[in-house]
Amino acid sequence: MWRENTVDFKLARFYEMSTRVVLTFLIVTILLAILAGVGCTLYDLRLVFEEEFHAAFKQIMVDLLTVLAVIEVLRTALAYSTEGRVKVTYIIDTVIVTVLTEVMAFWYKDIEWQEVAMTIALVLSLAFTRIVAVRFSPAAARREL
């Protein structure tokens, strides 16, 4: 019995350390992606002088929203590394930012009203899910006790 617990403890410890190593590499990769995204956004500022304003600002807006989506992924990874669990609200925030990037692209496309309606329904359902996740989170339940 004592030997079993030692093996279980060692396996749990190995899993925890492996997860931390992989998560550290993931966080470094995400930080490099954010730096590359910021660099790409700064580079795309030249489009303001080279192309039509709407096209230039569309590209810059998409770049910025993409960087924000990657920042949300970083928040999720950092929350997992500190709390040992993934917060649903961070994932929902990431999806909302990504969907908003698509909404920004809608301004410059000819799209059907059904696509707009589906996008609005998606954003509303994500907002509702986020509200429910915040209201019924484990942290909120602990505070009420």
Low-confidence stretches: none
| Strand-pairing-aware structural class | mainly alpha
- Whole-number mean pLDDT: 84
How many domains? The number is 1
Quickly count the helices. Answer: 6
Query: What order do the SSEs take from the amino end to the carboxyl end, as H and E?
Result: HHHHHH
DSSP summary, beta strand count = 0
- Note the gap between the termini: 37 Å
What coarse outline follows from CA principal-axis ratios? Answer: flat
**Helix percentage range:** over 70%
Taking the sheet with the most strands, its summary is: none
The Cα radius of gyration reads 21 Å
Strand content: under 5%
Membrane topology: Multi-pass membrane protein
Transmembrane segments: 21-45, 57-78, 90-108, 114-133
Subcellular location: Cell membrane
GO cellular component, one term: plasma membrane
Describe the structure.
There is one protein chain. This protein has about 140 residues and is an all-alpha fold. The protein has one domain (about 10-135). It is built from 6 helices and no strands. The longest helix has about 45 residues, at about 1-45. It comes from Geomonas terrae. It is a multi-pass membrane protein. It is found in: Cell membrane.
Which key terms come to mind for this protein?
mainly alpha, 88% helix, 0% strand, 145 residues
